[in-house]
Amino acid sequence: MLYRIAADGLVLFHLLFIVFVVFGGLLVLKWRHLIWLHLPAAGWGVAVELFHLPCPLTRWENLMRHAAGQSGYGAGFIEHYVWPVIYPAGLTPTIQLWLASVVLAVNVLLYLRVISLHL
User: Which residues cross the membrane (predicted)?
Assistant: First the structure.
C-alpha cells in the first residue's frame, strides 16, 4: 500500500515538475531567487525532449509500482499519462522537438522579461 501511495505521489510530483519547467519563469518574475532552481529544471526538460533521455522519475515510479505488486509502464511519463489525453496517436521525435522548442521559447521570453526589469 505504501509503495502505491509513493508511486502516485511521484506521479503528482512529476506533473508539477513539468509545469515548473514550462511555466517556472513566471515565478522567477516575482521571486528572483527561484532562478537557481528553474534554470537547471528547464535545461533538463529541454534536454530530455531534444535527446530523448529517460527521466529517472519514470524509472522510480515503475520500481515503486512493481514493489506494490502493480505493473509499471514501458514508455515515459508524458507518453503514459499526458500524451494519450492530448494526442492519442503517440509521441514522435518531431513532436518532441516541437515540445522542446516551446519550453525553450516560453522560458527565453520570460527570462528576457526578467532581465529587462533589472536594467
Answer: 12-29, 36-54, 95-114
pLDDT digits (tens, 9 = 90+) for 50-84: 888 888 888 888 888 888 887 766 666 656 666 56
Question: Domain count of the chain?
Answer: 1
Task: Output the DSSP codes for 9-63.
Answer: HHHHHHHHHHHHHHHHHHHHHH-GGGHHHHHHHHHHHHHHHHHTPPPHHHHHHHH
Identify the H or E element spanning 109. helix 93-118
* Residue 31 belongs to domain spanning: 2-118
Instruction: Report the candidate in 42, 44, 40 with the shortest Cα–Cα distance to residue 57.
Output: 44
**pLDDT score of 100:** 83
